Amino acid sequence: MQIHKIIYKFCCAIIVTGLLVTGCSNYKSATVTSSMKLPDTFTVSTDTNTIAAIPISSFFSDTYLVSLIDTAMAANPDILSALQKVEVANANLKYAGGALLPSVNLNLNAGIEKYGDYTMNGVGNYDTNLSSNINSDQKIPTNPTPDYFVGFKSSWEVDLWGKLHSRKKAAFSRFLASQNGYKMVMTSLTSQIATAYYQLLALDYELKVIRKNIILQRNALEIVKVQKLGGRATELAVQQFLAQLKRTQGLESVTLQQIVETENQLKFLTGKFSQPVRRDTSINTLVLPKVLTAGVPSQLLLNRPDIKEAELELQAMNADIKAARAAFFPSLTLSPYVGFNSFASSLLFNTGSFVYGVVGGVTAPIFNRRQIKSDYARTIAEGKQALYAYQKTILSSFQEVMNGMKGVENYQNYYEQKQQEVQALTNAVDVANDLYLVGRANYLEVITAQRSVLDAELELANTRKNIFINAINLYRSVGGGWR
């Protein structure tokens, strides 16, 4: 009979072990990795230096712009929100690390229970009270029986398969990712403020050009009115010059509104309501950074915060996959306790009521395996999503650098040609006015010359702005703007 019991227990152990091993072997460890390799150089540059390491205060020569950026770093809502995300990730890391340590709780328990006459406790308590081996304090109260406990109870899951360590590793990677996310918000904010600032300077210059042309066109209108009185011009000419003036005055109103909107955008980015935006530099006299080099593509992996963030998120997902796989294996939990336990409150802190013990338990998933399988499959799919996001970020950063480098070069060439065009058109306006006064040019030629020089000067300011915006984009795209 004893042999049969041993054989039965042995067979049960084999069946359970077989189920566990079979279930775990079907889900081998999976790791999601990227095989993407960046080119050795950018096709538009072979310079190995990079502007990413240049501090903001050194990259931008305008002290008013640097002051705006400093203000935004302390008050912008996105910056403050990103900083709290770092705090959240730090709290999650501490929480994941705490799971590796045993929990200890102070327990103050009191209960009461009525045992039936035909239960083991009921019969056992009744029989114990009849024993001559116990004293009056040891007699068990019946009908009902109290139970008091004061002491410490602990629970500790032994990390046999590295599940808890993998979760801590994932939390640590996400903490580092949140720090890089914070840096990415900083570089993005730097880019937004600088872009808006140069747009504002360009609008200031456009307003100056428009008002200069309003004066010129108003003088031309007065001249043609005088000529009409003398019979040298018609009412048609007067109306054409008047229409030209009104068009330019309308541009003035539109530009003033754009200035207001751009100033308010800068106030919003810096977290202010009504602080004036200080600036006194013409965009045409601002100096571009002396060195605009992108370095080599591999430096993007070190300098771009969004690439580092995506890479760390990929590492976190790989740790999540390991933790999800470990859920298929049995888990061991130890539950020690120490304290005082008694069925009488008056005897609770008696030395004879002191108790201690430890309970160990092994649990293995059997009927809830479908949930574990689903969680494992979901984690792998999310890991692949993180991989594709990482690769997309790398591709996007490479294209941004290329666009920024060529943009600075091409707009610089365009600006030089536009300067010569403005000079030629300005000379044409003077010539047209002189010829008109002596009757060798008609009023339409004067109007056309005035409109052409106005449009060219406005385009000149816009082109200069585009040079600076592309320089900003290059600075951001290589990973600058957060140091």
From TrEMBL:
<dbReference type="GO" id="GO:0015562">
    <property type="term" value="F:efflux transmembrane transporter activity"/>
</dbReference>
<keyword id="KW-1134">Transmembrane beta strand</keyword>
<protein>
    <submittedName>
        <fullName>Efflux transporter outer membrane subunit</fullName>
    </submittedName>
</protein>
<keyword id="KW-0732">Signal</keyword>
<keyword id="KW-0472">Membrane</keyword>
<keyword id="KW-0449">Lipoprotein</keyword>
<dbReference type="Pfam" id="PF02321">
    <property type="entry name" value="OEP"/>
</dbReference>
<feature type="coiled-coil region">
    <location>
        <begin position="408"/>
        <end position="435"/>
    </location>
</feature>
<feature type="signal peptide">
    <location>
        <begin position="1"/>
        <end position="30"/>
    </location>
</feature>
<keyword id="KW-0175">Coiled coil</keyword>
<keyword id="KW-0812">Transmembrane</keyword>
<keyword id="KW-0564">Palmitate</keyword>
<dbReference type="InterPro" id="IPR003423">
    <property type="entry name" value="OMP_efflux"/>
</dbReference>
<dbReference type="GO" id="GO:0005886">
    <property type="term" value="C:plasma membrane"/>
</dbReference>
<comment type="similarity">
    <text>Belongs to the outer membrane factor (OMF) (TC 1.B.17) family.</text>
</comment>
<dbReference type="InterPro" id="IPR010131">
    <property type="entry name" value="MdtP/NodT-like"/>
</dbReference>
